[in-house]
Sequence to fold (300 residues):
Amino acid sequence: MDVSFLGGPHPQRGIGIVAPFDFALDRELWRWVPDEVSLHLTRTPYVPVEVSLDLARLVSEHQTLHAAVHALSAAEPEVLAYACTSGSFVDGMAGERTMSAAMETAGGVPALTTSGALLEALAELDARRIALVTPYTASVTQALEDYLAEAGITIAGQTGLGLTRHIWKVAYRDIVEMARHAVPRDVDALFISCTNLPTYDVIPQLEAELRMPVISANQVTMWAALRRLGTSAVGPYQTLIDESARRTVRAEVPLADAPRPDAPATAGVAPEQQLSEPPGFAEPPVFPEPPVFPEFPGAE
Fold:
């Protein structure tokens, strides 16, 4: 059969992704990517350590990054991204900058990290006072707060699950419930941390309910990487990547009517605009009891 008339395949532009060894959300990253861009993923070597500050440092060692970037170079990516939040904030802003520079030197192309992309996104949204949702233990969450404080960002509310493994198995309903508890009335945005926490479908729903920008680790990573290619991320009604959403997400509800920590989750929101849970949602578990998973070491 003659298929020469098809004229393809179309040229692809590549983004090289370095992820922790247990990263399980490859498909979620792809959902932000336009058709003309390909993702090339590699992972750090396995280590039998649970999610912790120690693990964050292990998966971000420069020798590890150099080997990962070298492996990706065969695919000739135009941009490199380190897709791990804790691994890129654990040593503060100086550590994040050093990581990005090390990857650029090794790969010869622009490089970024999730935590660096987070600061870019907050600047883009002019968000200086935010709420946090994390799956981490208290010590890892504190390190994130310290990183953000160093960048001049105020944390006005936060919730966490205290997990040390299997973060990718957290259900959307648990993320929604954490967000409802984390957000006071006077913040500029909500950040959902950890690249192993699924968020793609939750973001537009939370923005509709909370009336504020909601950004996540995977979203800011892909947004920043695609920006460096001179193109845009794709996604349904997400404030960071949709100008129309950015103009309207706060305009519809005055601040005085915004949800309060002690108010029902749908206070101030018109009935037709209230968050509808995706199919299969059950009543959320008693908060903040974390999900229980089988024993197995994991990374971010």
Q: What stands out?
A: The CA atoms of residues 211 and 253 lie 7 Å apart. The radius of gyration is 19 Å. The chain has eleven helices and eight strands. The beta strands are 13-19, 37-43, 79-82, 111-113, 129-134, 154-160, 189-192, 214-216.
